[in-house]
C-alpha cells in the first residue's frame, strides 16, 4: 500500500525511532511477497509443555556450558556472522517451490559457528536467526523462544558429534574433520527436523509427524552441504582465524543473494502463469457465455418470428381448405387444390414441430427455472421423439450449487447434442450420482463411436465443442474423459467436485 | 331455437396468427369470432364489452403475458373460459397456465380438427376432451 511506504518515513524521522525506521526500510526492501502469516498459536497443554521443556533444556545446556566449559569467544566473527544470519532470516527465500530451500544458507553459517566455537557460537546462531524470522513474520515470543531453543539444541548436538568424531581443536586430521563435519550436518538436520515435526503435530493434531518428516526428507541432501560448510569453516578458522571465517562467509552471502534473485524470478513467473491461466479461463467463460447468449437469441428469434408465422400460415391454409370443403364443387381442379391446401397445412405444422425440437436443442428453456433434472429430461425427451431409447438415472433429491448444475448440464447438453448429430445411437444412458463430494455424470451410447482421427478432423474443421467442455470441467476442478472407438459407442464421464 | 354459436375471442401478439386463426375458425358455422386482441391489456378491455364464451390466449406476449391476463380475466369474468395457446413451453409454464385459471392449453401445431374439438368441448363442458393435450 502506498501509504504504508510513504507515511512511516516522515514518522520515523520525526520521532527518531531508528529501529522502527530500520524495520520499515527492510520491509520496503522486501523483495518477495510475504509468506502467509502463521495463525495465532493454539496454546494446548501438550504444546505448552513441549515448548516449555525444550526451552528449559536449552537453558540448562547453556548454563552447563557456561559453568563447566571454557568458551571460545571471537567478538568480530560473532558480530559479523550474527548480523549475517539475522539479515538472511529477514530476507528469507520462502517462495521457491517445490524445494524448501529457505534456510540453507543460514544453516551453513550456524554449522560453521557451532563446530568452530562450540556452545558460544551455537548461541549466536540460535539467537540471531529466530530474531530475524520474527522481524519478518511477526512470530511472537512463544514461537521465537521455541525456535531459539530448538536451534540451540540442534547446534550444540552438531558440535558434540563433531568433537566426538574429530576430537577437540585440530583433531585427527583432514579426513576425520570432513567426516565429522558431514555427521554434524546430518545430526543438525535430524534434530532440527524432529523438533519441528513434533511442534507442528502438537499445534495441529491433524498433521501427522511422519508427514512432516517425509516433507523434510526432500531437503535431506542439503545436510551434506551443511557438513562441508562445517568442515570448511573449522579448517579456515584454524588456518586463518577471523579472516578465514569471513572469507568463507562471503560466498555464503552471495549464494543467498543468488537464491533471492532466483526465487524472485520463479515467483514472478508463477504469478504471470497464474494471471495467464486466469485470463484464459475468463476468455473461455466469456466465449461460452457469448455462444449461449447467441443460441438463446437465435432460439427466441425463431420462436417469435418464424414459428408464429408458420402457425398463422397453417391456420390460414386450413381455413382455405375448410372454405373449399364447405362450398363443394365437382370441379377436379378444386379437389386437387383442397388436397394441396391440406398437405401444405400439415407440412407447415410438421415444420413447426421440427423447429420446436431445434429450439429446445439450441436453448433448453428449463434449466434456470426448473433445475438440472427437468432440463436434462427435456433434452432427452427430444431425443426420444426422434427414436432414440433413453435411460435416465438421477438422484431423486439432488441439490446442487447453481454453477455446478449449469456446468453439468452444459456438458451433458453438448455430449447429447453430439450423440444426436453424429452417433446414430439406438440407446443412450444418462447416469448421475454423487459420492464423496463429487458429482459423477456418465453418458453412454451404443452409436458408431469415433477415433482420434475423427476428433482431429472435426477440430480442424473448427468444431471446438468437446475441447471447450473438457477445459471447462478442468477449470472447475473436475475431469472429463471421453472413451470411444469406431463401432463401439462412446462413454463420457464427468467428475466434478460439488462442495 | 337453434343453438347459439360459440363466441370466441383470439388474443395473440402475432398478426399472422390472429388472422389465420380467425379465418380458420370463421368458417365453422357454430363458432363466431367476436374479437381480436393483440395484448393481454387489450384482451381485458375487450372482454368487458364482448363477454366471449371462450378466449384463446397466447401464452407469451410482451407486456402482460397470457398467464397474468388469464388470471385477471377469470377474476372479472368467471363465465368466460380461457384456453391457452402455446407454440411451445416447458412443463412448468403449462402448470402455471392451468393454475392461473385456464381450462387447458393447446399447442399451436395441433391438427385443426383437434383444435376445434378442444374448443367445442371447452365451450360446452368447460373441459378439454380427454384425448387432447
Explain the layout of strands and helices.
The complex is a heterodimer of chains A (499) and B (133).
Chain A: H1 2-15, H2 18-29, H3 45-68, H4 75-90, H5 104-117, H6 119-137, H7 140-166, H8 174-203, H9 209-217, H10 222-326, H11 332-362, H12 367-385, E1 389-393, H13 402-423, E2 427-435, E3 438-445, H14 452-460, H15 465-475, E4 479-484, E5 490-497
Parallel strand pairs in A: 1-2
Antiparallel strand pairs in A: 2-3, 3-5, 4-5
Helix pairs in contact in A: 1-2, 3-7, 4-5, 4-6, 4-10, 5-6, 5-7, 5-10, 6-7, 7-8, 8-9, 8-10, 10-11, 12-13, 13-15
Chain B: E1 6-11, H1 15-26, E2 31-37, H2 40-50, E3 54-58, H3 66-76, E4 81-86, H4 91-99, E5 104-107, H5 112-125
Parallel strand pairs in B: 1-2, 1-3, 3-4, 4-5
Kindly state the percentage of residues in helix of chain B.
40-55%
Number of helices of chain A: 15
Radius of gyration of chain B from CA coordinates: 13 Å
Strand content of chain A: 5-15%
The counted number of beta strands of chain B is: 5
- Mean pLDDT over all positions of chain A: 82
> Tell me about the biggest sheet of chain B?
5 strands, parallel
The SSE string of chain A, one letter per element, is: HHHHHHHHHHHHEHEEHHEE
Q: Helix content range of the residues of chain A, please? A: over 70%
Q: What is the CATH architecture assignment of the largest domain in chain A? A: Orthogonal Bundle
The total of beta strands of chain A comes to 5
**Architecture of chain B in CATH?**
3-Layer(aba) Sandwich
Report the principal-axis shape of chain B: globular
> Can you list the strand order of the major beta sheet of chain A?
1-2-3-5-4
Write out the strand line-up for the largest beta sheet of chain B, numbering strands in chain order.
2-1-3-4-5
Determine the N-to-C terminus distance of chain A. Answer: 34 Å
Biggest interface: A-B, 32 and 26 residues
Within CATH, the superfamily of chain B carries the name Response regulator
Mean pLDDT of chain B: 85
Amino acid at each position: 500500500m502506498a501509504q504504508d511506504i510513504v507515511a512511516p518515513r516522515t514518522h520515523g524521522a520525526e520521532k527518531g525511532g531508528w529501529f522502527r525506521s530500520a524495520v520499515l526500510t527492510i520491509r520496503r526492501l522486501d523483495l518477495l511477497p510475504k509468506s502467509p502469516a502463521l495463525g495465532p498459536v493454539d496454546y494446548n497443554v501438550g504444546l505448552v509443555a513441549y515448548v516449555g521443556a525444550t526451552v528449559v533444556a536449552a537453558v540448562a545446556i547453556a548454563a552447563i556450558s557456561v559453568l563447566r566449559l571454557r568458551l571460545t569467544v571471537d567478538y568480530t566473527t560473532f558480530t559479523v556472522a550474527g548480523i549475517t544470519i539475522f539479515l538472511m532470516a529477514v530476507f528469507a527465500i520462502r517462495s521457491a517451490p517445490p524445494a524448501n530451500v529457505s534456510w540453507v544458507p543460514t544453516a551453513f553459517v550456524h554449522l560453521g559457528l557451532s563446530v568452530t566455537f562450540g556452545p558460544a557460537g551455537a548461541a549466536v546462531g540460535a539467537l540471531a536467526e529466530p530474531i530475524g524470522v520474527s522481524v519478518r513474520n511477526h512470530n511472537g515470543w512463544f514461537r521465537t523462544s521455541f525456535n531459539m531453543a530448538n536451534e540451540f539444541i540442534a547446534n550444540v548436538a552438531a558440535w558434540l558429534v563433531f568433537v566426538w568424531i574429530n576430537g577437540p581443536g585440530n583433531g585427527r586430521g583432514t579426513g576425520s574433520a570432513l567426516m565429522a563435519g558431514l555427521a554434524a550436518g546430518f545430526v543438525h538436520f535430524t534434530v532440527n527436523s524432529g523438533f519441528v515435526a513434533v511442534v507442528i503435530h502438537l499445534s495441529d493434531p491433524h498433521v501427522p509427524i511422519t508427514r512432516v518428516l517425509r516433507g523434510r526428507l526432500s531437503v535431506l541432501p542439503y545436510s551434506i552441504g551443511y557438513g562441508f560448510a562445517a568442515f570448511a569453516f573449522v579448517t579456515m578458522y584454524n588456518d586463518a582465524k577471523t579472516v578465514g571465517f569471513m572469507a568463507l562467509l562471503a560466498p555464503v552471502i552471495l549464494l543467498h543473494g543468488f537464491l533471492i534473485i532466483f526465487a524472485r524470478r520463479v515467483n514472478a513467473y508463477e504469478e504471470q502463469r497464474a494471471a495467464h491461466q486466469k485470463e484464459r479461463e475468463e476468455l473461455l467463460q466469456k466465449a461460452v457465455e457469448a455462444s449461449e447468449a447467441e443460441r438463446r437469441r437465435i432460439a427466441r428469434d425463431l420462436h417469435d418470428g418464424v414459428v408464429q408465422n408458420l402457425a398463422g400460415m397453417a391456420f390460414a391454409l386450413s381455413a382455405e381448405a375448410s372454405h373449399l370443403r364447405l362450398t363443394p364443387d365437382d370441379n377436379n381442379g378444386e379437389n386437387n387444390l383442397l388436397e394441396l391446401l391440406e398437405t401444405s397445412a400439415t407440412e407447415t405444422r410438421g415444420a413447426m414441430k421440427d423447429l420446436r425440437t431445434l429450439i429446445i436443442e439450441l436453448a433448453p428453456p428449463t434449466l434456470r427455472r426448473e433445475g438440472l433434472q427437468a432440463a436434462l429430461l427435456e433434452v432427452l425427451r427430444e431425443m426420444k421423439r426422434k427414436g432414440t431409447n433413453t435411460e435416465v438415472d438421477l438422484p431423486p433429491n439432488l441439490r446442487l450449487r447453481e454453477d455446478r448444475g449449469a456446468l453439468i448440464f452444459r456438458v451433458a447438453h453438448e455430449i447429447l447434442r453430439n450423440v444426436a448429430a453424429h452417433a446414430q445411437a439406438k440407446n443412450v444412458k444418462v447416469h448421475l450420482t454423487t459420492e464423496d463430494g463429487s458429482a459423477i455424470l456418465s453418458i453412454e451410447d451404443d452409436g458408431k463411436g469415433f477415433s482420434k482421427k475423427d476428433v482431429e478432423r472435426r477440430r480442424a474443421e473448427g468444431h471446438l465443442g468437446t475441447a471447450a467442455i473438457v477445459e471447462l470441467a478442468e477449470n472447475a476442478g473436475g475431469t472429463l474423459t471421453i472413451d470411444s472407438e469406431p463401432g463401439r459407442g462412446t462413454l463420457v464421464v464427468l467428475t466434478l467436485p460439488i462442495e | 331455437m337453434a343453438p347459439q354459436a360459440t363466441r370466441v375471442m383470439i388474443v395473440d401478439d402475432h398478426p399472422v396468427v390472429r388472422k389465420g386463426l380467425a379465418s380458420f375458425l370463421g368458417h365453422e358455422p357454430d363458432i363466431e369470432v367476436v374479437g381480436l386482441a393483440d395484448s393481454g391489456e387489450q384482451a381485458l378491455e375487450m372482454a368487458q364489452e364482448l363477454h366471449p364464451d371462450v378466449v384463446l390466449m397466447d401464452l407469451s406476449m410482451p407486456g402482460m403475458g397470457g398467464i397474468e391476463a388469464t388470471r385477471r380475466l377469470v377474476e372479472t369474468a368467471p363465465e368466460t373460459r380461457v384456453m391457452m395457446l402455446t407454440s411451445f413451453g416447458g412443463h412448468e409454464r403449462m402448470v402455471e397456465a392451468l393454475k392461473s385459471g385456464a381450462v387447458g392449453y393447446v399447442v399451436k401445431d395441433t391438427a385443426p380438427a383437434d383444435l376445434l374439438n378442444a374448443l367445442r368441448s371447452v365451450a360446452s363442458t368447460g373441459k378439454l376432451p380427454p384425448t387432447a393435450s
